[in-house]
């Protein structure tokens, strides 16, 4: 041991016994036990015993309206989507048992990638087993040691994990701050590889990025741009291609990342790109190569759903109405929301603290409404949030019912 270097305090251990590697979770375990000891229903242990439709389920024994599922376009019970999944299960079996680069590419995977290329009008599409893996794989493979990643501080966990896996220099900037992003890019050494990572919709507060300005700044500095459109695909933009489409900069975005676990209504992730060398990713991207591919039934449901989303403009319009109705109603009731105006299908209700947030979550569940409870470290600025994600299948009357539930629960818990 070198002199002058202090050692961190070690808990007492008996000889021959190592430190319990779980001791790092003690604070979290205590906080959780403290909360549950008050009789609070566990917000992270909800069970859906039966799912009745995209907007209703039996949750913990109660008939419940779903307002926290990211099932934005309600595709999970679409008759064509279900029929495609059943047929693929019959024709191709339950799973591929292999990697995409060995025995795991079936006709359905190709059809799914063709559907994505058509949806985005782009040259290349690569399907991953989840959206998490799409970010992990693409980011870590294109930005490695000696490269620079400039990213929004509120980026999703899968983006941060992709940065860590790739070992590039990571330079975060304040959320949606165009000038800060410009400054960080200006300090990167001449000739270095640069990747800017942004999200279309930020899922915690439901706010969108000023992509038109940010993409222009990135291009001024010669950076490549990756945009995660997980929460906008299928809904935002004329063709549902996302915030980059809505703001007219999709053609300048080098990589769009997305997921099948939200508007598409199944599971899986993807990247689309016009980069002429993109196909090499299939051989060098470890989270693509070293894992089994999606089951045939899943890619069949995804391909069918994506094709139907291309013609979803009526549903998109209704979802905007739902988002506006909920946002206006909650504002009128006196709740504090994540954005002044609705910017997406996510409406985040800011809670004063975790205890009251959890109490409000439970009061809503007892009313028959499920929303997401979000707390640090997932949330920005240590906020506790009740996140509502609307569905195109919610009716206007259902949104009014939801507002009544918020009013009663909010008064009972003393938040309004
Ligand atoms: N990116 C963002 C912005 C997300 O919110 C999520 C999931 N919540 C993902 C990526 C990961 O998607 P998946 O569920 O397909 O892993």
From TrEMBL:
Among the GO molecular function terms of this UniProt record, one is:
pyridoxal phosphate binding
One family name in Pfam for this protein? Aminotran_1_2
Going by the UniProt record, its keywords in alphabetical order are:
Aminotransferase, Pyridoxal phosphate, Transferase
- The Aminotransferase class I/classII large domain extends over 63-403
Q: Which cofactors, by name? A: pyridoxal 5'-phosphate
Q: Which SUPFAM superfamilies match?
A: PLP-dependent transferases
State if Transferase is listed as a keyword: yes
Spell out the NCBIfam families in the cross-references: SerpalmtaseAlphaP (NF047603), SerpalmtaseBetaP (NF047599)
PANTHER family membership? CLASS II AMINOTRANSFERASE/8-AMINO-7-OXONONANOATE SYNTHASE (PTHR13693), LD36009P (PTHR13693:SF3)
The record's family statement is: Belongs to the class-II pyridoxal-phosphate-dependent aminotransferase family.
This one is known as Aminotransferase class I/II-fold pyridoxal phosphate-dependent enzyme
- Native organism is Tsuneonella aeria
